[in-house]
Amino acid sequence: MYQYLIEGGFPLKGTIKASGNKNAALPCIAAALLTEERVILRNLPDIEDMHVMLEIFAALGGEVENIGANDYALRIQKVERNDIPLDLSKKIRASILFAGPLLARSGKAVLPPPGGDVIGRRRLDTHFLALTELGARVDIDGQFTFTANKLIGQDIFLDEASVTATENAVMAAVLAEGTTIITNAASEPHVQDVCKMLNSMGAKISGIGSNILTISGVQALSGTDYKIGPDFMEIGSFIGLAAVTHGSITITDIEPADMRPIRLAFGKLGIRWNIEGTTLTVPTQQDLQINSDLGGMIPKIDDAPWPGFPPDLTSIMTVVATQVEGTVLIHEKMFESRMFFVDKLIGMGARITLCDPHRAVVSGPSVLHGSDLVSPDVRAGMAMVIAALCARGESVIRNVYQIERGYENLTTRLKSLGAKIERISSC
Ligand SMILES: CC(=O)N[C@H]1[C@@H](OP(=O)(O)OP(=O)(O)OC[C@H]2O[C@@H](n3ccc(=O)[nH]c3=O)[C@H](O)[C@@H]2O)O[C@H](CO)[C@@H](O)[C@@H]1O
Ligand SMILES: C=C(OP(=O)(O)O)C(=O)O
Q: Which residues bind UDP-N-acetyl-alpha-D-glucosamine (predicted)?
């Protein structure tokens, strides 16, 4: 068990490279199960969740070879078991992503309920809807058992645009007989990434980036060499960090198109950046003033499926808003328990009213002071790191496993930007 000791109040300055997108890396590892051939995945972030996914891949009979700093070669010639080990499954939400590939490859998948962040009810109904429509039978008895003699393409209308359910449905449909149409599909950049990876393996997926995906099933998929895209959640977190510490951070290897919904939301907080090619720079001079809606009305930052504002950045926006002059409503529509962490920010001096589990009104700027904090989930944990780095005095952040499952090499990278942060054992 590790914790962070942070001394706040110093501007962060310098250049970092964006890591690979966690939420693309995880389904891409699961997708490697769909072929007997060698799959090379590049730009995988070196984070806890990625290592757990690789452990599951290996437990199923796969070979995993680290061939470069963030590059791995995966191969599973024979699936040796079709049940996900309980201890690994409960560590991460993304373990559910093995359902579609295991079903398609071996006709059976047994999964204990997945773990993951406690940020509200995390329904799996959409996964079941999609996989049963493709012909799977699901038995629920403490664990989920999916079986199918044959998967057959269908015209599927998802009850919500679930990210991982879309990915599971696509991974099952690529080897199904006939054509599958998925309407109300999620279209996040990570969903696009796994679809592009599958096409590079010989799958036939069209409509990538839209909410209707059409998949013509193929007999077999080949290996590939695929580089996953940058993590816009990490990039958004570093933008917030630069702004609240009055620093200037340059982030290389970004994807400008991913930043469009994020730019709109930061713009409401008077925060802007420049992009040249794939390099983004947050300049020191920022307004840090709320841009009211027409008529001087209080603006809101609310999340939605892509291309809406990503829910995984609402915690970050909440802490950033505490340093901005004016009032803003943060409305986390998608997860009902994500906003509870604001009591920790209030304890540090932030002026926030938690209206209900989904909505918080933030009035700034507030002087934050150091505190003793426990990270409840990956994004709230990062929000606490940001709060601690702009607070006066020292903070302790415990349970940093929760942060490090989503942010690569965080303390080293923050130190390179001038942060006073130490990672120490809490035993
Ligand atoms: C491993 C992975 O990729 N995890 C991401 C994935 O989780 P995950 O795939 O679990 O999230 P889902 O997209 O299924 O749903 C997220 C939440 O939003 C709600 N919902 C979803 C779609 C919709 O149209 N309406 C709606 O209200 C769901 O009920 C749920 O409460 O997507 C989430 C939403 O971007 C992200 O927070 C997670 O980081
Ligand atoms: C909620 C998140 O991840 P997961 O779905 O893996 O729990 C996240 O990345 O913010």
A: 93, 312, 334
